[in-house]
Design a protein that fits this description.
Blueprint lengths: L5 E8 L3 H12 L2 E5 L2 E6 L1 H14 L6 E9 L24
Antiparallel strand pairs: 1-3, 1-4, 2-3
Length: 97
């Protein structure tokens, strides 16, 4: 498994406000927020697995959803295209279509 950092899109839907706040606290340390429950993370695959494990301990499998998408190596150049762009994520070099 590669140790190089990749860019990840992390999105979730949490039904309980208390769990949602707990998930926010965990994600806040690693990711940059793009929308209410959508974040970008620059991390190694191992670090993302640890994040997923922490989130699964908080979330309820029957009620909540988590989506983690690997957008590729963090060092590659890509085009960022957002409607109403958020300036603090523009440097992440991701492509969102």
């Amino acid at each position: 498994m590669s140790k190089a950092a990749h860019l990840y899109l992390v999105a979730y839907d949490i039904s309980c406000p208390r769990r949602w706040k707990r998930v926010q606290k965990v994600i806040k340390g690693l990711c940059r927020r793009s929308q209410l429950s959508v974040h970008f993370c620059r991390a190694t695959p191992a670090r993302i697995r640890r994040l997923e494990n922490r989130l699964h301990r908080i979330m309820h499998d029957e009620e909540d959803r988590l989506m983690v998408i690997d957008l590729g190596p963090a060092h590659t150049q890509a085009q960022l295209s957002l409607l109403n762009p958020i300036n603090d994520i523009a440097d992440l070099k991701a492509a969102i279509l």
